[in-house]
Amino acid sequence: MMRSFLLAIDAGSSSIRCTAYEYHRHHSGGGSGTHDDKTNLAPLSSSSSSSTHSPPLVTAVKGVSHAIPLEAIVPNTGHIRIHEVLAAIDNCVDETLKLLRQRMLSCDLTHSYPHQVVAIGFSTFVMNFVALDIHGDPVGEVATCSYACNRDDVVEECQRLRESLGAETLHEMYQRSGTPLHTSYALPQLRAFYGNKDNEAIAKTIDKWSTISSICLYRWSGRPQIQMPISYSEASWTGMLNFRTCSWDDQMVDLVETCDGVVQYTEDDLLVDEEYTEGVDLLPPLADFDAALPFLREGTPRYNDDGSENSYWERWPELRSYPMHLFFGVGDGAAANIGSKCSGISTSEYPVGSQRIAVTVGTSAAARVCLHLPLSLYPGVDESNITIPPGLFCYRVHRDRILLGGALTDGGSVVEWARTMLNLQSNESFDACLGQVSEAYEQERTMAGSFASMHGEVTMIPFLSGERSTGFRGGAKGCISGLTRETTPSHVMYACLESVTLRICCILQLIHELCTSQSISGQKPNQCIIVASGKALERNTLWRQMLADCSSMDVVVDDGSSEGTSRGVAMLMAASLQQSEFSDSFATFNNIDEPLNVSGIDRPSAAVSDRWKIAKLAQESLIEAIAPTWNKR
């Protein structure tokens, strides 16, 4: 039997990873996600399949994954080490295909079992934006943009835009794009780039701006004589896409194209395809992540469009087959939600009708929810009825779904910072400190009203790297208040965990209010639950309990969604393939609904509800008190 595989590339800001997933074409019969042939292929996690459900669309192949650590972004500047990133992606595909070939060999190594790679897809750190020359190659590191930008010139550009546009115009732009004016988005970064006279020479070489995944697809597909689109998802994270119509926002485009230093190009021979919208001078055409463009469905060609040899033909023979689907990139946050089984309102179990909110705490932290909001059947027409609450972002996942939520630059990094500052670098001392925090919090849960004595009255603002959600205040700094001679390391560690929890719950409150008050496409959940992911949450039961108590929601750990971002890419690819192969398949974008494999539930305690209200008030009061001291540029 021919077995089909997908390659999911996760281009993160600290590492590049490629993982092979087996694709299971669902059918009406039973079946299993595992096989007992001599190739020893099996799902990455035995819990990812259940005898009471159909086999999953995808299962990760044990040992067929390769990662390369890489700091993809230059600190503070936001510039992308684009050449290193592209090389690392190619090398990860090299090694993953090599591992797959080895896995598919028979035990006596005499032959290979029939298999094919049917698709490759991406998640990427977002935003990423890269300037290309007329040959489709990056012009240089300085002409790149990313979410991790905190340069003074971009901060100043944000301030100029605030003053010139005014609050009403900025609010209207926010409601169209789903993003506030902030240094992490493309508009101020592009204006700062083109307004810098030192960039005049390199600006003249720029033909289009693109993304990491689209650059890869352009190279792999034979450098077609066409402007390569970027996905709605990646475009949305630039902050310049109208997420309601999936077109570039005209006002923002004008704000970029009227900058001094912008060189205008007219592409008279731009090929127009109904799969994507017409491009503008600087910005690329747009398409959904699974747009069925011919040159992305025909496998890797032997020759580039200009007649030169395509090196990937020899390098990756598995990609020559027809059809071999190349998918545009999706934002890593969107992929993480899909991969952690938070694609929308549950129609399966735990419980039916619940809205799953993905909360991830790693180095950073985020809370996000997928909502069903299809594009209008009429191009450029906005038929949505959603109002984005100030403090949240809203991005496109694909044509049928949006991703609404918020993010903190510092999540688990706050704990790591405190661990270093308090000299708790040995596991023994760190574990002992966390044990004291856990004991103190457990006493609070059983002895309501003793907040001050247990906590030490220490309050923290965790903006060590500035503030994103919910205030998006420029120049924000961290702060610890309430220190006395009696303050201990456990009091400070307690305040760190509490502070991040409080900021996450500010995001959760806005999400909950929107989901339960606005009927989006006629859907309202009967309740909201949190699905926790990220090593910091998965390994820390205390933090999960704090999150449950502060949010008044159940916090669930799922046992079957390891490597959620990569898995999300594989699920999106598989759903698209399934939709195209079986028109009556359940696996549509309207609902990639999977049952949770619950390994643990932390439920909120009403006994500490007042304690968290006091803590929230203390933190908000501290922020208001010290915000005037922050750099207001």
From TrEMBL:
One of its GO terms (molecular function) is kinase activity. Residues 27-56 are annotated as: Disordered. The keyword Nucleotide-binding does not apply. Keywords: Kinase, Transferase. Transmembrane segments: none annotated. Residues 82-256 form the Carbohydrate kinase FGGY N-terminal domain. Pfam families: FGGY_C, FGGY_N. Residues 397-576 form the Carbohydrate kinase FGGY C-terminal domain. The keyword RNA-binding does not apply. This is Glycerol kinase.
